[in-house]
Specification:
Elements: H1 5-18, E1 27-28, E2 31-32, E3 37-42, H2 49-55, H3 60-70, E4 84-89, E5 97-103, E6 108-113, E7 120-124, E8 127-138, H4 142-148, H5 154-162, E9 177-187, E10 190-204, E11 207-214, E12 223-225, E13 245-248, E14 251-255, E15 262-265, E16 268-271, E17 277-279, E18 284-292, E19 296-303, E20 307-317, E21 326-327, E22 332-336, E23 346-353, E24 356-358, H6 376-399, E25 405-406
Parallel strand pairs: 8-25
Antiparallel strand pairs: 1-2, 3-4, 4-5, 5-6, 6-7, 8-9, 9-10, 10-11, 11-12, 13-16, 14-15, 16-23, 17-22, 18-19, 18-21, 19-20, 20-22, 20-23, 23-24
Bound molecules: zinc ion (ZN).
């Protein structure tokens, strides 16, 4: 046992004190943020960028110049309440601010050098993509199934989007099968969101619906096509509300629940929660947006080619909806309610062809443009590759008797 423990320990102490503490350099936004005091905040409702910068004693002339120089990079008017910002100030004093960073979205951010109003940069965080395949069969709720399988429920919305012209999701049944291929986007290695569907398959009833995304290039629309190259797009959507169920079909004779007598029901009723957005099923011009005791608040739209559609019992109109207003397919025109003669919240959807009210579910709606002759070979290649992957995935899952429960509705 040594006789000089005190000397040894004091030596160690001395040598430790001599070591210059190692400074860990921390980079964020492409800046060495550890040399600043970092102040993070969320833009409040009705708060201007100038309010934030004024708090850090940035003068109005500098703010004015930043706004002007920023115009082409990121418009000052586009700062949004709820988004995050960061101020990098001197460690000595908050009133000497050097940088402001605005988080445009999880990928993009803008760096403002407060000492040099010419130095404004829009930057991007690195993103990566992972391709994912999912499969399932209908039985219950797709939302819940996807969440249970740690799959983004947005995929259900995207899948409904792909088939919005061909499948009426208010009529899908237990046993219907689907699978899909899509990209997941990661920002800095963290899951951000699912991207649109690349290819999908839906077996509804006894019919198979394939969909392959393809971009025809130069000014032409990118979209979904079936296995023969026909566009999935139609002049009209299958339904004016996304997630709903049909509560009453078009019929020349049905018992009216309010009037208590038999009369024709020349429309299709979609039951949905009060306030659910109602969309125009096709491009057109609003002919009437009015109120009557029977229809309640309703909108009638005139479409090209002698078609008209009508949407009844709205709780309210979407803003700007009045006669003469041009609408595009999918534009929100109102919200589900039960105004007029209605027992519960629903939209009564009516469809005219050449002045005659018809059952839109039995109508053959003209399709969008198919794949061009010159793009057909390229399309076939894309289609065959995805089709093979979709098929082999379904076969594997059948062997493993893998079943997920799903419904695109509830
Ligand atoms: Zn009705």
């Amino acid at each position: 046992v040594s006789n000089q423990p005190s000397a040894t320990s004091s030596n160690i102490l001395a040598s430790e004190l001599d070591v210059i503490p190692e400074i860990e350099e921390v980079f964020e936004y492409g800046l060495r943020v550890d040399t600043f005091a970092m102040h993070k905040g969320i833009i409040a409702q009705n708060e201007f960028v100038s309010d934030i910068l004024n708090r850090f004693k940035v003068d109005n002339q500098t703010i004015h110049n930043l706004a002007i120089n920023s115009a082409d990079i990121f418009d000052f008017k586009k700062f949004r309440a709820g988004n995050e910002y960061t101020i990098l100030a001197s460690e000595e004093s908050d009133s000497i601010a050097h940088y402001m960073i605005y988080e445009k979205d999880p990928i993009e951010y803008v760096v403002y050098n407060l000492n040099n109003v010419d130095d404004i940069q829009l930057k991007k965080r690195p993103t990566t993509r992972k391709q994912r395949q999912i499969t399932g069969s209908i039985e219950g709720s797709l939302w819940n199934t996807l969440i249970a399988s740690e799959i983004d429920p947005d995929v259900a919305v995207n899948l409904a989007q792909v088939y919005q012209w061909s499948i009426d999701f208010s009529r899908i049944q237990a046993g219907d099968q689907f699978n899909a291929i899509y990209d997941e986007i990661y920002v800095d290695g963290q899951y951000y969101r699912s991207d649109s569907i690349k290819a999908s398959y839906f077996n509804h009833g006894d019919k198979e619906y394939y969909a392959f995304y393809f971009d025809q290039g130069e000014g032409k629309q990118a979209g979904f096509y079936d296995e023969t190259g026909e566009s999935l797009k139609r002049a009209f959507l299958r339904a004016p509300v996304k997630f709903s169920r049909i509560s009453s079909r078009y019929s020349k004779r049905r018992f009216h629940p309010v009037q208590k007598r038999y009369k024709a029901h020349l429309g299709t009723d979609y039951a949905a929660a009060h306030g659910t957005p109602i969309v125009a099923t096709g491009d057109g011009v609003v002919e009437i947006a009015a109120y009557t005791s029977g229809n309640g608040r309703y909108v009638k739209v005139k479409h090209p080619g002698a078609y008209k559609t009508q949407y009844l019992h709205m709780s309210k109109f979407a803003s700007g909806i009045k006669s003469g207003k041009a609408v595009r397919q999918g534009d929100v025109i109102g919200y589900v309610g039960s105004t007029g003669l209605a027992t519960g919240p629903h939209v009564c959807y009516r469809f005219w062809k050449n002045g005659v009210q018809v059952d839109h579910l039995r109508l053959d709606i003209p399709a969008g443009d198919p794949i061009d002759e010159e793009n057909m070979l390229a399309y076939q290649k894309v289609k065959e590759e995805y089709m093979l992957r979709l098929k082999s995935q379904r076969e594997q899952d059948n062997e493993n008797t893998f079943v997920t429960t799903a419904s695109l509705l509830q």
